[in-house]
Amino acid sequence: MTLKSLNRLSIVISFLIILVGSLLVALPAFGPLNNLLANYVVDDSFYFLLPALNYGNGAGISFDGIHATNGFQPLWMFLLLPLGVFIDDRLLMLRSALVFQALLFAAAVAVVVWAALRHQRWITALLFPVIALLFGLRHDLNTSFVTNGLESALFFLMLALGFAATLTLTQDDDPTTQTVILALLVLTRIDAIFIAAALWLYGVAHRLPIHGVGRTVRDYGRGILLGGVLLLLYFFWSWYRTGLLMPVSGQIKMWESAQLTTQQFGGRETVAFWQQIGTVFAESVAFVVSVPATALVFQPVRETMEFRNSLIQNAGTIYPVVTVIVLLIVPRLWHVAARPRSEGRAWNGVLAALGLGALVHLAVHSITLWPFARYNTWHYISQLFVVLLLTATLLEWLLRPLQRRSAIAALLSVLLLGAGLVWAQQTSISQTIASRSEPPRVEESERLGLYRAALWGNHGLPTGRLLGAFNAGTAGYFSESPLINLDGLINDATLFHNRKAEIPIANYLAQEQIDYLIDYAPLGDYPIAELGSVHYVDLYQPESAAFVMNLRASFLTDEGEGLLAAWPVTLRLPTGEMEQWIGTAWALPADEVDNHVWFVANPAGEFEAGPFTPDATWFHGWPPPPRHSEFVVSYRRLPPMEMQETTVVVHNLDGMPVIGPAEREVTERP
């Protein structure tokens, strides 16, 4: 087998891996909605999807359909707008966006393969798809880096295009394409300007000694013009719509970071702050560098499907065998080719420039967004792309001596090494396929609570009311009533200016005439006492979810228009698997001295609980509702396999158990 035929075979195998991988990565998008909400998307995902839908419905690029916003990464929003025009169903929009992300991720891998083959790096062309596939299939990484509804997969693709376009400059190609791609990279994530600058300067430094100053300036002129126009168009639109050049979400986060830095360290000029940043930076680098070892080899995902267990139960024995075979076939792994090719120097040079830009990006991110950068793993995409690319490059360096010995042995070594990685990651594919209705730890997802609250509000709140939420993504996306984002991340600049001027949030609520707040407690910077006269809908607290699996307590209003004389009233809970339950509630006016609330959980009279005495803070900080108060309990049916008695404990706003006068717990038999 000649190297030329081996190159063709590499192309076929690489793109087969990409095809199969993209299908598997996209598979969870077709699973149950509660699996997507609990295990894949984040609340911020809907900050992109809902404005795209509102744009398609003629409301402009707005989260609530009222206020224009620029609180998003522009290129990902631009690509979602056509979906919003042609898709009106919100669940279909979510699934389509996740499938789109899987395709973008596959395209990014294909671009790297194309660049590797163009530079005669067929081992990288074979290994990078395997590494990227396992990375994309690992559930806990996929959630943050690929199919999460954010710009993650697009950022992956633009990094790949920027890397490949910079490589072409080493072969004396026109720099226009590279400059335009790097401008689009900045529009994918505004803070990627450091990465774009590193790649652009590398290209200039490479061409300048060869072509001189005059020709280099002429060659880059057209690209600078086209890329500059793209950036200026966005900045002009942003300023025209919101009065801000940069996304309001990023400005709020940087402002909040500065406030927290001052409160905790006394400012960014203090030694304590820089010690903290050094720790954050070191931890971040360690996390990114450890991904290939922990995610691809040593730490597979635990959850598996039953039908896959029989296939992979012997993987613990097979993987060491495969590793031994690889080590036996690959001789002298430490040997370096005697004369490195110029293509290798170009590849390594561009990779070094990309890595330097990613490190600067990480450093600036750690400084300007402390402590938020530590918790959002999708902020590490550029660094992780470099590490995955570096992993494939190092394996190429180790395996390249075999090119001069036996092409067949080299191909076999690569395939066996890929097989070893697959076996090491045996449970990733099974976890991806396991998009079932009872995902692990599903009860701990605040997104499910926000989703169910939105569904309840669609049936239980008076129509035409204006809602508000600080964690607005999920609730706003599935709500039929307009819902205004109150932390300002996906709003106009008013809230941002109000927060800097220390204007109470109650002023904004009154100005916008918001009727109800929907959120999970606590509300961070806004205690209940500062919310004015707005009705507050309290969802379950995430920190209580671990031990309150079957009960969610909310402060809600009835679905009818009747007065107090209409009580008792029956409330049907139309939230997915809860729809078979009917709760009957009695309530006294909120200004009654005792504030007692009775609840009967099943009309068949199997059990009842009450009276409950809400904590004093339940009505603190705002006048009583105009008609009445209710205490509604939401239930979740356990799967048939979990038929057992479960303890139900009601929680108040502070997360403390509220038991009746007899101090007894109530049990429910599904």
- The CA-CA distance between the termini, in Å, is 65 Å
Beta-strand portion reads 5-15%
- Overall structural class, as computed from helix and strand content, comes to alpha/beta
Rg, please? Answer: 28 Å
Total domain units: 2
Shape: globular
For the biggest β-sheet, the strand order reads 2-1-3-4
Walk me through this protein's architecture.
The protein is an alpha/beta fold and 670 residues long. The chain is built from 22 helices and 14 strands. A 4-stranded parallel β-sheet has the order 2-1-3-4. The protein has a 4-stranded antiparallel β-sheet with strand order 6-7-8-9, with no helix packed on it. A two-stranded antiparallel sheet has the order 5-10. The protein is globular, with a radius of gyration of 28 Å. It starts with a helix and ends with a strand.
